[in-house]
Specification:
The complex is a heterodimer.
Chain A: H1 13-17, E1 27-34, H2 42-58, E2 63-68, E3 75-80, E4 85-89, H3 95-106, H4 110-123, H5 161-171
Parallel strand pairs in A: 1-2
Antiparallel strand pairs in A: 1-3, 3-4
Chain B: E1 2-4, E2 24-26, H1 53-90, H2 92-167, H3 176-185, E3 192-194, E4 200-203
Antiparallel strand pairs in B: 1-2, 3-4
The chains are: A alpha+beta, B mainly alpha.
Chain lengths: 172, 207
């Protein structure tokens, strides 16, 4: 029941997360034109079969469109946000070669990814308390093992400032 | 006035200590606008809480100062965040980064163009080779067909010549009598047996 289709490994999270084609922010649309038969289109077919799921998983906001048997040769076309179109000819190329080519011209480099990962880690610093939009928790009462929020359960009398000032006044 | 609840969690302000083991809740504002006030509240004059003028002045001063400082701090932090964001997006460093990105993009696009050019050359060569091969094959087919037609014609010519040769031995009305005389003079015996190799095995005598 969990195994559906040929190569069901393509549907596993582990496989999808292994994808290393993360496009730059300016890439908005990716179009793949390929043919369903023919030796020259074999690389493109394999690319579509194996790598497109990984690409879409890693770039959920990029529109990926596939066209079959529309042109005699197979190619990739990328549409950037400033209207520029990038054409990549993939006739006769192997799918790994295609991946490397695309990674070189239009993907974020390792350093950029590293910097972004650091920034994301800083954002999710558990030591910061604030609005949900920017921090993980709003108040220390939300953390397990800490004093619960006095809004839900009343604090013991000894912890209230009112009682303490009363006791201090009484002692004096 | 008191409503019994079924064990759901509620804010502390609404819960009373359960002495009798039943959770009850007090709801504010049970009476509506037109209901008369209670008998126990007859003659009640509601006065605001007493205010000590000296304390009030001191408190007001302290509070204005406190509010001023807090507001200033808050605005200070907000401004810092906005400035950081502005620097990030449109500062000098950001421009530098954008310029570098544009340059790198240009270089990569040129490289991509060169790759496409190379693929184009390869494709042109391949297409040219394919057309040449197709022409070659067509030519071969034509030649073969010619050859076959020539052979056919020759074969037919041979047959015609053979037929012409045979026609010399045909029996016509002119040499009919002569051929009859010849046949009668030379009787042929067809009564013979043949083995598997086609050699004649035995003959019977013609009577």
């Amino acid at each position: 029941m969990p195994m559906k289709g040929r190569f069901p490994i393509r549907r596993t999270l582990e496989y999808l997360q292994k994808g290393d084609l993360i496009f730059k922010n300016r890439v908005k649309i990716m179009t793949v034109n390929y043919n369903t038969s023919g030796e020259l289109s074999e690389g493109a077919r394999k690319f579509v079969f194996f790598n497109i799921p990984q690409i879409q998983y890693k770039n959920p906001w990029v529109q990926v469109v596939m066209f079959k048997n529309m042109t005699p040769s197979s190619f990739l076309k990328f549409y950037l946000d400033d209207g520029e179109q990038v054409l990549v000819d993939v006739e006769g190329k192997d799918h790994q070669l295609i991946t490397q080519h695309v990674k070189k011209i239009l993907c974020k480099s390792e350093e950029v990814l590293h910097v972004e990962a650091l920034a994301k880690m800083q954002e999710s610093n558990p030591a910061n308390f604030g609005p949900k939009k920017y921090c993980l928790k709003e108040c220390i009462c939300e953390v397990e093992g800490q004093v619960p929020c006095p809004g839900t359960t009343p604090l013991p009398k000894e912890f209230t400032g009112k009682y303490r000032t009363q006791m201090a006044a009484a002692q004096e | 006035m008191f409503k019994v609840i079924g064990g759901r969690a509620l804010p502390a302000a609404r819960l009373l200590a359960p002495r009798c083991g039943v959770w009850v809740e007090s709801v504010r504002g049970r009476k509506s606008r037109n209901d008369p006030p209670a008998k126990s509240k007859e003659g009640r004059i509601k006065l605001p809480p007493p205010v000590d003028p000296v304390e009030m002045v001191v408190m007001k001063e302290r509070f204005t100062e406190y509010n001023l400082i807090m507001r200033a701090l808050r605005l200070e932090f907000k401004e810092e965040v906005l400035r950081k964001k502005y620097e990030e997006e449109t500062g000098s460093l950001a421009e530098e980064r954008a310029r570098q990105d544009a340059e790198e993009h240009k270089i990569l696009m040129e490289w991509n163009g060169a790759e496409n050019h190379r693929m184009l050359k390869i494709r042109q060569l391949r297409v040219q080779k394919e057309t040449e091969e197709a022409d070659q094959r067509k030519l071969e087919v034509i030649l073969k067909r010619d050859h076959e037609r020539q052979a056919f014609i020759q074969q037919k010519e041979q047959e015609i010549l053979q037929l012409q040769e045979d026609a010399k031995n045909f029996i016509t009305l002119e040499n009919l009598d002569q051929r009859i005389e010849e046949a009668l003079d030379r009787p042929r015996n067809y009564n013979y047996a043949v083995d598997r190799e086609g050699r004649v095995v035995k003959r019977t005598v013609l009577d």
